[in-house]
Design a protein that fits this description.
The structure is a homodimer.
Chain A: E1 8-11, E2 15-18, H1 26-31, E3 36-41, H2 44-48, H3 51-61, E4 65-71, H4 78-91, E5 97-103, H5 105-117, E6 146-150, E7 162-168, E8 171-177, E9 185-188, H6 198-217, H7 223-236, H8 239-245, H9 250-267, H10 274-286, H11 290-305, H12 310-321, H13 328-345, H14 362-368, H15 383-392
Parallel strand pairs in A: 2-9, 3-4, 3-5, 5-6, 6-9
Antiparallel strand pairs in A: 7-8
Helix pairs in contact in A: 4-5, 6-7, 6-8, 6-9, 6-11, 7-9, 7-12, 8-9, 10-11, 10-14, 11-13, 12-13, 14-15
Chain lengths: 394, 394
């Protein structure tokens, strides 16, 4: 049985529209937010495949003027945000403007940051608003309304209230965060993920699964988030492996898109844990893509936390396997084993050296993992323990 | 394992704030929606206990001008809505106005209807906008923003997009419905329910449980709604019996307020079923309070639908009992038995004659139960079968 954790807060996009082919509804949905949409786009594949042109045509037919603002094909950096905000200010923001993000977590995060900063001009750089770096400025005025159209099943950024922004000099990967940054409308069309290559399918999918698991076992639990997280794990099943092997599988793409959305709704309202903590450090110090970093760290993060979350792990084991087990211990073990099998099946490396980590980087990784995500980890992990864990993974 | 039902839409209040004593936060929350709050209040107990005065004081301190608009102590009727809308129009609606509902489902429904109609003045009466009666007018312009503060753990109206409005001449009980009618902010303070008498605790609580069950087994399933519904049933456990016996139990009041909220989020995004269909007819033809009507009908509605929803009933059985059962059949039977035990423990009558139904009213009840709720029932129920079922309950 679920425990009930009170009190809690729950934030959600007001409207979620989910379904294969439902990008056809983009026009009226955008029109319900405004008349002019500044578009942040995530991938050139989308342009080449004609999907972007189709969406822009649908916007025009609904009397929404679409203006390209930015295209981003890697995780957004401070400069990307600052440049897009400056461009938008130059274009001149008016009543009836909205942001439209079409892409993976990078595009959605960039759009969220731009929507917030263009309305909060106390500084010219997003850095001053990021957690733990800069001047600690806050998002006070409501951002421009944002509609998110995710094209990878991964980060769940379409349902969260933060945007993750990186910098490599000095190295940090931090969140711009505000309750007001949650997208107003989310349009999930799993068919848009059909063209995502297997490797990206694997990494983004493992990011979603990591979020579902960490939001479920976190030390900052929320009863609504946990209900959504466990249902996401139940629905996932073998979908990530199926989507990896057959990118055109409608069933697998639907399940993964749904799981990713639920993972965003869950993490927006609860904590995360060690896998996400270390993933941020792997991103800035070793340039490991976020999903891959989460995937590599997840099995270890599960083994470390299992002793203090046996009942939750048992529930995860039942959810992932779709069956019962003779004991709580057996079900909890199944949770970890299933995740290890998934990682193996979709080609996630087991060792940090395989993703380019060198022994001398470990102190920086340990220090860099102490962000907001790590605060949600069930166990307190000392620097000594973290160092030992990472060294064992070399 | 959950099945995934695609496509789906999911609407939710943007912000939910849940916790014992958190009414203290009402001021800034209301202020985030506007400067002047028209208050619809549900019960004179709230006034007498001083709770209302406390809330109005908190609003004033947050620079929100509170204006009493209506107090309603029974389910809202067409005239109640029309009168409140006229009063609000006379007061003059301005930028920065919001509606604030403090009460049970009746007060929240009345406030939702008023917020919508005052912005949509094509007719002077709500009747013209109700489903299945009147002229079929639609809510086109966005309603005034609404903040809902539920004081009974029951209808879940704080999270739904409809307002149920009754009329006794001619007799009907129909919904005013629009995606735009969902409250913007929901503030649930379970402590506000401490003064609710046992009988009302029982009826409103059984309404919530009926909603969780009907939204879970409905023929219009939604994967997010089902995840929330089953988690509500898991958390409920014995809470309704405990809240009935000891109204000051913090644990029981919290669980029931949470279950009621989840039931609203679930039903706003899925169908209901036979218990709610007949409850509407019992309301207008026999003046049976909504929660009591649901409670009386729930065991019968479960027995009727069980043959076509054995797996879902088994899951409900496990959720309500908090344990496993040797077979799906046994778990499904437990679901019905547990609900029957709950009904008995909180004094719900078993026979329709005990709530004033006469044999000659049955044809009108059968005809009057064919509303939107009944369309979600798992089984098609012919008039003959419905008549037989209700006659057996006399």
């Amino acid at each position: 049985m679920h425990q009930a954790y009170f009190p809690y807060d729950f934030l959600s996009p007001r409207r979620i529209v989910f379904g294969w082919g439902r990008r056809a509804e983009i026009g009226p949905l955008a029109r319900s937010l405004g008349r002019r949409a500044f578009v942040v786009c995530g991938s050139r594949t989308l342009e080449r495949s004609g999907a972007l042109g189709e969406l822009l045509g649908l916007l025009a037919r609904a009397d929404v003027e679409a203006r390209p603002l930015a295209t981003i094909t890697r995780e957004p950096e401070v400069d990307d945000v600052d440049r897009a905000v400056a461009a938008l200010r130059q274009a001149g923001v008016a009543e009836g403007d909205l942001l439209l993000a079409i892409g993976g977590g990078s595009a959605i995060d960039l759009a969220k940051a731009v929507a917030a900063l263009v309305q909060n001009p106390q500084s010219d750089t997003v850095r001053d608003y990021l957690e733990g770096v800069g001047r600690g400025l806050k998002i006070e005025r409501p951002p421009l309304p944002l509609m998110a159209v995710p094209t990878t099943a991964g980060t769940g950024s379409e349902a969260t209230k933060n945007a993750v922004i990186s910098c490599y000099d000095p190295p940090f990967k931090k969140s711009l965060r505000s309750d007001q940054m949650i997208p107003a409308i989310v349009l999930v069309d799993p068919e848009l993920a059909v063209s995502v290559p297997p490797e990206v399918t694997a990494w983004t999918g493992m990011d979603a699964i990591t979020q579902l698991i960490e939001a479920y076992i976190t030390r900052k639990p929320n009863p609504v988030a946990q209900a959504l997280a466990i249902s996401g794990l139940e629905i996932t099943g073998d979908a990530i492996v199926e989507a990896y092997r057959d990118g055109s599988s409608r069933d697998a793409r639907q399940r993964m898109a749904h799981a990713a959305l639920l993972s965003g709704m869950a993490l927006a309202n609860s904590g995360l844990g060690m896998a996400h903590g270390v993933a941020a450090a792997l991103g800035v110090h070793c340039r490991v893509p976020h999903g891959l970093a989460c995937a590599v760290m997840l099995p270890v993060a599960m083994r470390v936390n299992r002793p203090v979350r046996e009942a939750q792990f048992a529930r995860i084991g039942r959810a992932l396997s779709g069956r019962r087990w003779p004991s709580q211990r057996a079900a909890a073990e199944v949770a970890v084993e299933r995740v290890e099998e998934m990682c193996q099946a979709v080609g996630v490396p087991r060792w940090l050296s395989e993703i380019g980590v060198r022994r001398e980087q470990i102190p920086a990784l340990v220090a860099g993992s102490r962000g907001n995500s790590m605060n949600g980890n069930p166990r307190d992990l000392s620097d000594e323990l973290m160092t030992a864990l990472l060294e064992e993974m070399l």
